[in-house]
């Protein structure tokens, strides 16, 4: 493989994920090996995890667990579905999945953008710390559980206990919410929120197709921030 | 951990390849369960006959045993397991004889079509020992075990039989299996091992003995079994899937015109024919799914 060429192909039917990731991890800032095309992912785990270079990785098919985990700078595009923990603990960059994703998508992610074309399973954005997640379908139960910062935008519906024990993340949902978790409440949509939502539409490449006014905003009621003596009997 | 797979064929043309496909699925799930493996295959059978799956110590003289059971008993040996085929009316009598003349032989499954094999070892080795790849059938389920709640023994391996032509595989761990076991024992359901999954199998058998359908028994388990579980249950005519209400354990399903497939992970399904165009989804928590040949 020649590091001076710009485009690389990698076939996971003949080489291992370990070899792929080792090659991707060797890339540094300023690399001109900017486009990586990965064939035959077959649901394998940890594809393109731990990258730290401004490259684009296109994966042609479904991936397994933790794809794009811990990502910094890289753009990872999956033409298929993704398993548990896609873009888990992402710091920056962008992970885009065409299909559905399993549980814990974007878990604990600090930054970057996670764009999901289909539905996300349970616990999408659990403990998110600054990532912007856009789900074009619906999200499962306990999404944004203990979410601390960032935004979760859902074009479809949300399952049970949305935003349970949420801190300061902002949740935007267009469809129905089966139930809100502890300390999560609906909040007023002001201009600043409509503006923020419009920015998320741009992030997902759908600006002009959706109306921010169709969305509701949810966030923390902040009643769990401090110990309250009336709750003493609950402990 | 543990891995589960299931394959239900809609296309008869694939039936000779059932074992081969299931074997590939099982082997990929080795990462999730390298301790032991097992599978149940629903193959040929006649309504007036019953198949007993026997398990015995290494090198057991199954032919000698079959000779003691009289005429009309067919024998097919596969390593430590053997299938006895006998007229349905003789089942009780043959079981009695087995208990008397062959105390080290266990009847691990019974039914008109189900054959059930399980053993300690890597899933690929287990599949090869029992020649899974050569088996044909309409559907089958399999399990690769990473033991958590009880020892790595053949008795602790899955599937567990829950009744005639019925068996269960489980990924997860039950936290109230001791309580459920005591309740079952009071109801007269014997649990052979320390295994929590056998308790789940016994629970379903008991519910069905009380008149519930398999689907209803699975619904009941949502209230009575506490813990993490994804169950796949094989029956004479199909298979069912149930995940616990918080969907703790993974599950992926795929459906095409030719089959319905279940895997703990998508990887297990990646080698199936036409998977690129299959409908692939995750079963919802606390929802009973069923595929049935009779209804299909």
From TrEMBL, chain A:
Question: Which GO terms label this protein's molecular function in UniProt?
Answer: oxidoreductase activity
Listed CDD domains: GXGXG
Cite the InterPro entries for this sequence: Glu_synth_asu_C_sf, Glu_synth_lsu_3
What is the recorded name of this protein? Answer: Protein glxC
Q: Please name the gene that encodes this protein.
A: fwdC
UniProtKB/TrEMBL annotation, chain B:
Q: Which organism is it from?
A: Methylopila turkensis
Q: Name one Pfam family in it.
A: GATase_6
Q: Which residues form the Glutamine amidotransferase type-2 domain?
A: 2-294
In its UniProt record, a GO molecular function of this protein is:
transferase activity
What keywords does the record list, in alphabetical order? Glutamine amidotransferase, Transferase
Under the heading InterPro entries, the entry gives: GATase_2_dom, Ntn_hydrolases_N
Q: Which named protein is this? A: Amidophosphoribosyltransferase
Look up keyword rRNA processing and say if it applies: no
